[in-house]
Amino acid sequence: MTPHFGKRMTSLVLGVSLLFGSGMAMAQAKTIIKLGWTSSAGDTDPYAVGAREFKKAVEANSQGRIEVQLFPNRQLGDEKKMAAKLDAKGIKLLGFMEGGFRNMINNVRPVLKPDDVKGVKYRVMQNPVFIGMFSSMGGNAVPMAWGETFTAVQQGTIDGLEIPLAVIDQNKYFEVTKYLSLTNHTYSAIPLLISKRTFDRMPEDLKKAVVDAGVAATKAQRSVSEQVNASLVKSLESKGMKVNRIADAAAFRKSLEGVYDKVRTTTDAEIMQEAMAAVQQRK
C-alpha cells in the first residue's frame, strides 16, 4: 500500500457518518430505527455495506423486534444537518467501520509531487484540516457539501476532489474525472452512531442486540472493504481513469508540516503522537 502523508484524526473529523435518526417509533410492538448516510446505496460503497451489515445483524439479534430502515443519499440530511444533531443530542458510538484511504482525482494532471497540486481546484470537506492540507500544497481548496460535488466536477466548477476508491467507483466519478493519483493522504473511519436517547429507551435485551450488531457489522464491513479495495484500482483503470502511484510521500509530508503544527494545538497530544508514529512506520 502506498505510504500516506498523514493519519486522519478521528477527534478532528469523522467524515460521513452512519447516523441513526433521533426518533424511535413503535409500530405493532416493533422498534423502528432509521439509519442514514450521505453517499450511495451501491454494492461496494463502504457506507452502504456497513449499513446493510448492521441492519442484517440487529434484526437477527432482536428476532425481528427491531426494524432498521435505510436512507442513503442524504435522505436524513447532509453533513451539516448531521453535525447539528450531534451537537444537540447525546450520541453513542457503536463502532468504527472502514472508510479507507482517500486519494486525489482531477481533470488537470496526475499528482506525483506537491507542486502538482498547485493551482488545481479541489473540493474538500467543510473542515479546516482539509482546507489547510490542500492550501499548504498550493491547491485551491473549495469547501463544498457532498451533494453538490459531482455536478461541480461535471460542469468544471472544480477540477477534482479527494475520495476513497470505493466511493469513486460507486458514485461513478470515473465518468467525470480523468486522473487518479494513489496518494493515500488520509484515512477515513466511518463511525456507527446512535442517539443515546433512542438507545436508553430500549429494553436491556434490545440494547444488547444493537451493541452486538454494531460489533458484528463493523467486522463484516471491514472484511468486505479490504476485499473490494484490492480489485478497485484495476476496475477504475478499465473504466478509463489514468492511475499513478506516489513514489516519494516524504515531500508531501514536508509540505504539510505547518498543518501538523496547527493540528497539534487542537488535538489530544497522545492521539496525535500515535497518529504520527503510525505515519513513520509506513515510510
Considering the chains and any ligands shown, give keywords for the structure.
single chain; about 280 residues; alpha/beta; 10 helices; 10 strands; globular
- Overall SS class: alpha/beta
The biggest beta sheet reads:
10 strands, mixed
Ends distance? 11 Å
The string of secondary-structure elements, in order, is EEEHEHEEHEHEHEHHEHHH
What is the strand and helix layout of this fold?
Layout: E1 18-20, E2 25-27, E3 30-36, H1 46-61, E4 66-71, H2 79-88, E5 91-106, E6 121-124, H3 128-136, E7 140-143, H4 146-155, E8 160-164, H5 165-170, E9 179-195, H6 196-200, H7 204-238, E10 242-245, H8 250-255, H9 257-264, H10 269-281
Parallel strand pairs: 1-9, 3-4, 6-7, 6-8, 9-10
Antiparallel strand pairs: 1-3, 2-3, 5-8, 5-9
Helix pairs in contact: 1-7
Put the structure in a nutshell.
The chain is α/β, with parallel strands linked by helices and 283 residues long. It contains 10 helices and 10 strands.
Description:
The chain has helices at about 45-60, 80-90, 130-135, 145-155, 165-170, 195-200, 205-240, 250-255, 255-265, 270-280, and strands at about 20, 25, 30-35, 65-70, 90-105, 120-125, 140-145, 160-165, 180-195, 240-245. It is α/β, with parallel strands linked by helices.
